[in-house]
Every structure is written in C-alpha cells, then in structure tokens.
Write a structure and sequence with these properties.
Blueprint (H helix, E strand, L loop, with lengths): L12 H39 L4 E3 L4 E3 L10 H16 L1 E2 L2 E2 L5 H4 L2 H12 L2 H6 L3 E6 L3 E3 L6 E16 L2 E17 L3 H4 L4 E8 L3 E2 L15 E2 L2
Antiparallel strand pairs: 1-2, 3-4, 5-7, 6-7, 7-8, 8-9, 8-10, 9-11
Length: 228
C-alpha cells in the first residue's frame, strides 16, 4: 500500500500577516537603532570639533584646522603663525638655496611664487660663491588696517644675520628687514591641500645695515621684491 502523505498544515492568511508584521517590526527597530547611532556619532563629532584648537599647523603632515563660523579677517592667530612661517621660509637659506623650499607651493599663489623665485635667483650666485648662511630674528608681527572680507595684510620686521666666507675669512653681518605680506583666502582648500590663507603679495624691502641710517642699503643684498 502506498504511504500516506504527511499531514502538512497549510499556513493561513493570519499566519502570513503575523510573519509580515514581525518582519516590519524588525526593520523598524533596525531603522531606529541606525538613527540613534547616527545621532550619537554626530553629537560626538560636534563635541570633538568644539574642543579642537583654534588653529593648528603641522607642516610635515599638512594638518591645519580653522574654526567654523569665524570671519576670515578675524583669524589673527592663523595669520600670525602663517606669517612667521613665510618669513622663515623666504629668509632661512644657505649656499644650496632655501632651507624649506617644500613650503612654497603650500604658502603662495602661483603668480606671487613666480615673482619670489625671480627675486631669490638674483642672490643665488652670491650665496654659492661666498658660502653664505642666512638666519633671522623676528620682531612681533603687526596687522595693517583696514582689512577686507577676504584679504589681510601683515608686516614682519626683524634682523637678518649673514655668515659668509670670503678669501678664507669669515664675515658676520646683520641687516634690518621689513617684509609686507598680503594674504588672500584659499577658495580651493579641500581640493589643493594648501594652507587656508595664501600669499598673494610679498614685498621684501632692501636690507639695511643694522644701526645704520635708513637710506644706507648694503649693495650686496638683492633688490626689493614686490609680488603685489
């Protein structure tokens, strides 16, 4: 005799609705959990941004942060730090060239950079032939008023020290310097990875012999660089 077919209970419409309800409840709970996790993460990141420094420069890693909501022309701490970096970049040099040439692309707009490189080349032979090492001391940096919505101007003053060797004799000379820096907001910060503010204009006045009358410029120094 053939075996009897197993007694299978057919699922009723009510059972189907119950399963569907359970599935809907499951995905509803998943959605709630996801929304809660997103809210928690957003609040966590918001608090983290509130705690970060007003401005941080880490040149080797290219990390820098600008506080949101603060007007560009009010970012004094940022422009003071960047101005110090510009002065160090354009003045620290030796017979082989600048000590920090890798900073130029991150600090300058292209037209201003091209003009500065022309200025830099004018003394290259002097630095090589006399084995010159140049360092500097910086006075407090000042701002020039008024400021534009997207422009800031700073002025750096101080003293440059040049140690050179001529005919086997060491010479040590000190000059006064004035550098005027015109800053412009970087609109492509996320794309080009440069600094938030870029040098649009750079004016390096003729170096003056320290403690000498203002008109007495040393003939061996380069002429004024004006990248305005």
């Amino acid at each position: 005799m053939p075996e009897a077919a197993p007694n299978t209970k057919r699922r009723s419409a009510i059972d189907t609705l119950v399963v569907r309800d359970r599935t809907a409840v499951f995905w509803f709970l998943v959605a709630i959990a996801t929304a809660a996790a997103c809210t928690w993460y957003t609040n966590l990141m918001s608090e983290a941004f509130k705690l970060q420094s007003t401005f941080v420069v880490m040149d080797s890693a290219g990390a820098y942060y600008v506080p949101p909501g603060l007007p560009y022309n009010k970012l004094d701490a940022m422009h003071l730090q960047l101005s110090e970096m510009v002065v160090e970049t354009v003045l620290e040099r030796n017979r082989d060239g600048l000590v920090y040439p890798e900073r130029l692309q991150k600090l300058f707009e292209k037209p201003a950079l091209q003009k500065f490189l022309i200025y830099l080349e004018k003394e290259a032979v002097y630095f090589r032939s006399n084995n010159v090492t140049q360092t500097f001391e910086l006075d407090p940096i000042k701002f020039i008023e008024p400021r534009g919505n997207a422009t800031v101007t700073t002025v750096a003053t101080g003293r440059v020290r040049r140690v050179s060797f001529l005919a086997g004799q060491q010479q040590d000379k000190t000059y006064d310097f004035t550098i005027t820096i015109g800053w412009w907001v970087n609109p492509y910060l996320a794309r080009d990875k440069n600094f938030p503010s870029l040098v649009r204009g750079l004016q390096i006045n003729d170096f003056q012999k320290a403690d000498a009358p203002a008109a007495e410029a040393l003939p061996e120094t380069a002429p004024k660089s004006d990248a305005q």
